[in-house]
Amino acid sequence: MPDPSLRPGARGTLVSFTVIRKAPAAFADEPLYAVAIVDLAPDRGEGARRVIGRIEPFDPPPRLGAAVQLARHDRSIPVFAPAAP
Amino acid sequence: MRPVSIVGIGSTRFGRHKETPLDALAASACRDALADAGIGAPEIGALYLGNFIGGVLSGQEVLAGLVGHQLGLPLSAPCSKVEGACASGGIAFRQAWMSVAAGLCDFAIAAGVEKMSHAGTARVTEALNCAMDQQRDGPTGLSFPGYFGMAARVYGEAHAEWRSHLTAVTRKNKANGLKNPLAQMGEDVSAETVEHSPLVADPLRLYDCCPISDGAAAIVIAADEAVKERLSRAGAKAPIRIAATVQTRGAPDVASIRNLLSFEATVEAARQAYRVSGLSPSDIDFVELHDCFSLTEILDAEDLGVVPRGMAGAWTREGRTRPDGDMPINVSGGLLAKGHPVGATGVGQLYEAVRQLRGEHPNPVNDAAIGMTHNLGGAGVVCTVSILKRADA
User: Between chains, do B150 and A24 touch, taking CB under 8 Å as contact?
Assistant: First the structure.
């Protein structure tokens, strides 16, 4: 289930990320993906908080501390993308 | 609590044990430890066995009962498997210590065992993920190399020469492993080989990761008052005192970790271990710590306080953590070279420390009197730290 408190476009900063090149068995058939940690800015009653999700695209590698925003949910996973300026 | 010592140790080689079942592997290490102690199975009052993924990878639970049966332990001896991911072995040791220190029995066995090499990398990666929060972290497809990859990227922001720090850890531990006959993969490896090995979870590469291992280790512990009379026997080895053995908890999921360059469970465990033992980092002669990845050794050394914060990478590169350095770390080869049969690792570290303190280690630290071991579970959800002392220290 997607986290209902995470609204599309929610903004934050990229804490770190990694490209998983040896995936756990359940993910072994997926195309290459990057897992990311994001610090969300306070938003509509939700305080600042840290979440885990994915980031796309990851090539070229995003800069740590870069502004990101929630692009969509993939199953229950929040997927972040570089924030629109 | 009464004073307690280690009086016997045993270990299989870490590596591949395809033909040996889990229980037989553990029992063989236990028999070696009993023989080393000169104690018979009927005297053992409790068995604690660390094992993490025997259920998932081998379909085998109630392992402690199987091992107790093979050893012929008394029916009155509780035999319990304990689980705390990669810290299962350290937890087993502390549980056995508690039984003896509290006076429930005079002799106990702490053992650990794991078999992983029969499963492929993807299955092992998935099994290890049982140590992850399956509501938040698991669904993202994160792996443990992935968590430490994210930490390594943060480390790289703080240390421009991060790659050479990580490489120095791997090269040191691989070189140490060459001198340890129990080690799975010691190697005289060049920086170029390390730094051109395949990426596993950016920026971590194959040589930054510990191998997939099978193995078992066991320790016999005894109340000091119960072994006094044994010590007069010819050939009895000097007991090694347990100055502290503590267990702490930490963040269970990635988003709850505030600082990716430190584990709060380790910091707290070290604090408690120094408090209980009355010792300080400068008293420690060597450390066997949880280097599941090259980066982890750097973070652990700083969290344990045996190297100044922010300096472990540079210290390693300068050779100060080699066996002849200021603070020898993972003289056994560590998880990176000796191997990481997860449930056995914590007990294996204690085995190495005891051999070092007895002065019988194949890769000796000069005049080692006090040693520390550190076993970390998951991404820091559980930690055990123990301090062992030579009786004359």
Answer: no
Q: What distance in Å separates the CA atoms of residue B344 and residue B91, rounded to the nearest whole number? A: 11
Tell me the mean pLDDT in the region B344-365.
98
Instruction: Dig out the tokens for B92 from the structure.
Output: 């087993």
- A64:B141 CB<8 A: no
Residue B326 dihedral angles phi and psi, to the nearest 5°: -65, -40
Residues of chain B contacting A60 with CB distance shorter than 8 Å: none
Residue B234 pLDDT exceeds 70: no
Quick one: pLDDT at residue A65? 98
Q: What ipTM is given for this predicted complex? A: 0.97
The neighbour count for residue B320, using CB atoms within 10 Å, is 17
Of A18, A53, A64, the CB nearest to B146: A18
Residue of A15, A26, A35 with shortest CB distance to B146: A35
Residues of A with CB under 8 A from a CB of B: 15-28, 30, 33, 35-37, 49-54, 61, 64, 75-77
A-B C-beta contacts closer than 8 Å: 95
Q: Give yes or no for a contact between B255 and A49, defined as CB atoms under 8 angstroms apart.
A: yes
Asked if residue A62 has a cis previous peptide bond (ω within 30° of 0), the answer is no
Q: CB-based contact (8 Å) between B154 and chain A?
A: yes
pLDDT at B367 over 90: yes
In percent, the amount of chain A with pLDDT more than 70 equals: 99
pTM above 0.95, yes or no: yes
Q: How confident is the model at residue B24 (pLDDT cuts 50, 70, 90)?
A: very high
Residue B282 pLDDT exceeds 70: yes
The token duo for B234 is 């010819």
pLDDT at B135 over 90: yes
**Chain B nearest C-alpha distance from A73 (Å):** 11
Peptide bond into B145 cis (omega under 30): no
Residue of A nearest to B256 (CA): A50
Average pLDDT over residues B287-303: 98
At B356, give phi and psi (nearest 5°): -65, -45
Which residues of B are annotated as catalytic? 86, 340
DSSP string, A2-20: --TTS-TT-EEEEEEEEEE
Closest CA to B216 of B383, B33, B4: B33
Please give the pLDDT value at position B250. Answer: 98
Distance from CA of B122 to the nearest CA of A (A): 5
- Chain B residue closest in CA terms to A39: B255
Would you call B129 helix, strand, or coil by DSSP? helix
Chain A residues within 8 A of B125 when measuring between CB atoms? 22-25
- A45 CB-near residues (< 8 Å, 6+ apart): none
